[in-house]
Amino acid sequence: MRVLTKVVLAAVVLPVALGSMNAFAGNQKGQNRDEQRPMCQRHDERGMFRSLNLTSDQQNKLRALRQGQRAQRQARMQGFRQEMDKLLLAKNFDDKAAQALAQKMVNDQVDRRVAMMRQRHEMLSILTPEQKTQWHKMSQEKRTPCLDERGHAGYGKGHGKGNGPGFMDDE
């Protein structure tokens, strides 16, 4: 009986101990990723606009555009969460309702992407021609290292290798 107790105890303690060591060690490749790739962050676009020496009028217009889109986006997402909660908490799962909600969410994602492009167009229309040129230059400089780090949209080493050349190669 003692041997069985020791085996069960080892089976429980060993994975927990190894998992704890792994958590403390951290993922060396992914650790402090934001510090390693500051130009690849999503919110860097605001920094790009700040470096354009905007007038206070331009700053106010850009702020108003961002705030208007944020409120609309949050309202839509809250509606989707409520619909999903209703589905998940129902007594029986309704496949048709779940598929309809999933399709609605996909359609909304397409609409959001179009709205994002429209908003960016409106934001750029606030800029002077010189500021637009400067923004475009910074945008191109920002994209190049990010694409290289991601392995050109999935190919090569890195996250989401895809089926490109070298996807089976060991690191």
TrEMBL record:
Ranges for region Disordered: 147-171
Keyword Signal in annotation: yes
Key words, A-Z: Periplasm, Signal
Gene3D superfamilies on file: 1.20.120.1490
GO CC term (a single one): outer membrane-bounded periplasmic space
Alphabetical list of Pfam families matching this protein: LTXXQ
Cleavable signal peptide: 1-25
Keyword Signal among record annotations: yes
A GO term for molecular function: unfolded protein binding
InterPro entries listed in its UniProt record: Cpx_auxiliary_protein (IPR052211), LTXXQ (IPR012899)
Composition bias, Gly residues: 153-165
Subcellular location: Periplasm
Family: Belongs to the CpxP/Spy family.
Protein's name in the database: Periplasmic protein CpxP
